[in-house]
Specification:
Layout lengths: L4 E3 L3 E7 L2 E9 L3 H14 L5 E9 L6 E6 L9 H10 L5 E8 L6 H17 L4 E14 L1 H13 L3 E7 L3 E7 L2 H11 L7 E11 L1
Antiparallel strand pairs: 1-7, 2-3, 3-6, 4-5, 4-6, 7-9, 7-10, 8-9
Helix pairs in contact: 2-3
């Protein structure tokens, strides 16, 4: 299975085809609500544009993991939003939103020309993007003696484990995100002579530069 990616930050571009201008913006969106806010902001930023076509893909929940939407915003059906969405799919992206605002130049492009223009604008914008791979990791909680937390944390980091947080009370509590919970549990057992058994408490996604 090909891992999903997202982008590090907002990218933009402008292309011109037969005197029609296509201004593309691709940005991060953590939810459908975020995506719709960004679409509305693009509409307000370019009120003179005749169309503000959009597409977005976001993670939702474990029961409904992906939300995908597209909108032609008055262009002939299937000539704008869906071609844009296909570009996002082709880049294996999630948690992104794309908006292409069109300024009509006086020459009709036809359905095929429109589809190529809208998808091409998004593709061109993404050439300037930095991509991040999203990895699902298990969250583990470890209760440790204060005297050993520094050593254990250092060893875990050396094995590529992300330390999410550390708190101190009667004992130190270390929360980490691991790609392989079983191997990390075995490592912790080795480091603590079997006295500490990590507790699994869910999962999270981390973003790693490509």
């Amino acid at each position: 299975m090909i891992p999903l990616r997202t982008i590090a930050g907002r990218v933009e571009c402008e292309i011109e085809i037969k005197k029609s201008r296509f201004v593309a913006v691709v940005d991060r969106a953590a939810s459908e609500a975020d995506a719709r806010v960004m679409i509305e902001c693009a509409r307000k930023a370019d009120p003179a544009a005749g169309h503000h076509c959009s597409a977005f893909m976001v993670d939702a929940s474990s029961t409904d993991p992906r939300i995908e939407r597209s909108n032609d915003d008055g262009e002939p059906g299937g000539t704008a939003g869906m071609p844009m969405l296909e570009v996002l799919r082709g880049h294996h992206l999630t948690n992104v939103v794309a908006v292409v605002s069109r300024y009509f130049g006086g020459t009709k492009l036809g359905t095929g020309g429109l589809a190529r223009a809208y998808s091409g604008a998004v593709t061109e914008a993404l050439t300037g993007a930095a991509f991040l791979t999203r990895e699902r990791r298990e969250i583990l909680t470890l209760e440790l003696d204060h005297a050993e937390v520094g050593r254990v944390e250092s060893e875990l980091r050396g094995h590529g484990v992300l330390v999410v947080g550390t708190s101190y009370a009667a004992r130190a509590v270390l929360t980490v995100a691991a790609a392989n919970a079983d191997s990390i549990s075995a490592l912790v057992a080795s480091l603590t002579a079997g006295r500490v058994a990590p507790v699994r408490s869910g999962h999270m996604y981390v973003e790693i530069p490509d």
